[in-house]
Write a structure and sequence with these properties.
With 114 residues, the protein is mainly β. Helices cover 0% and strands 56% of the residues. It contains no helices and 11 strands. Strands 2, 4, 5, 6, 9, 10 and 11 form a 7-stranded mixed sheet that branches. It is globular and about 40 Å long. The termini are far apart.
């Protein structure tokens, strides 16, 4: 299983950005896809997850501003980030969990300028 994340970049505070994460390989129909982020000098934190059944959860820090969704093929996940703040600056990672294990994508850097 491989995950490819992309969409990071530089954005001004208050702006929006959409990240995507494409999973390939032996993907189980039942899985959970997650977004994590790691701010500079800090640990990695879970910010959103989305089950294959369509249930989602968000960290308090992003609730109401970020939306996670899946594409038509269900193996692609998006993170729509609105009302971005400088505190959202981080490397963002996607992860897929299924019965065979957990798989990480490479990070994509999001920088929010004030």
């Amino acid at each position: 299983v491989q995950l490819q994340a992309c969409g990071g970049g530089l954005v001004q505070a208050g702006g929006s950005l959409q990240l995507s994460c494409a999973a390939s390989g032996n993907i189980n129909s039942m899985n959970v896809m997650e977004w994590y982020r790691q701010p500079p000098g800090k640990g990695r934190e879970l910010i959103a997850d989305l089950t294959s059944g369509g249930n989602s959860k968000y960290a308090n820090s992003v609730e109401g501003r970020f939306t996670v969704s899946r594409g038509e093929h269900r193996n692609t996940m998006y993170l729509q980030m609105n009302s971005l703040k400088p505190d959202d600056t981080a490397v963002y990672y996607c992860k897929l969990r299924q019965v065979s294990g957990q798989y990480w994508g490479q990070g994509t850097l999001v920088t929010v300028s004030s």
